[in-house]
């Protein structure tokens, strides 16, 4: 009976919001991936950006994930600023990818003219695309400055959608093989890693906060307002919600103040 009462915890605002968000992201990612596949059929240049995994590449995913997990477990403080910079660049690209279809739809609905204004990396940019790119950069900059969990979730969701849209599994055999490998990967690192490494590797990495390179640079240059920039960041590799959702949460708060769900778990569901 006591265990049943504990299940009532799932009816609190934070768990319900986390579950609803995860389901919505799962369906949204699948919908965007299907639409992107149609876009690739019409535009061969887009298909070059997608990756179709063969058997060996699928097997390497849990191996490389394990190596990355151990690297972050032992050297997180040393590589956290580099990870933050890399994540910021990936977030700009992912957010642009997710918002582009909606902007294109609004442009067609209102009949807006959209002339080409520049070329970047052999790609032509229209005026609206340039404005969208600036908006994406501004969103990531706001996350770097504030570290707010809502911006973290927005960027994390966009990374999840972009990853699912660009990575393809060609057949059911490779899907099943990857599913088994990732299942073993999750079970080991969550439940058995403490026996070998003295701590729960998965939980330790998931709850660590990265040093903010923007704060480091602003502080070293003694720029005005540097004290307003958050020192630590939750990287957008998971969606997080404050346990006291209605009361809010302070940016840069302790990881135990948040409920979290890794993007990898949602990607696993989407693939299988």
UniProtKB/TrEMBL annotation:
Is Protease tagged as a keyword? yes
Annotated GO biological processes are: membrane protein proteolysis; signal peptide processing
Where's it mainly located?
A: membrane
Task: Enumerate the subcellular locations listed in this protein's record, separating them with semicolons.
Answer: Endomembrane system
Record's GO cellular component terms? cytoplasmic side of endoplasmic reticulum membrane; Golgi-associated vesicle membrane; lumenal side of endoplasmic reticulum membrane
Its signal peptide is: none
Q: Does the keyword Chloroplast apply?
A: no
Q: How does it sit in the membrane?
A: Multi-pass membrane protein
Keywords in UniProt for this one? Hydrolase, Membrane, Protease, Transmembrane, Transmembrane helix
Against InterPro entries, the record matches this protein to:
Peptidase_A22B_SPP (IPR007369), Preselin/SPP (IPR006639)
Listed GO MF terms: aspartic endopeptidase activity, intramembrane cleaving
TM helices/strands, residue ranges: 14-35, 56-76, 82-104, 125-144, 174-192
Family membership, please give it: Belongs to the peptidase A22B family.
Protein name as catalogued:
Signal peptide peptidase-like 1
Species: Quercus lobata (Valley oak)
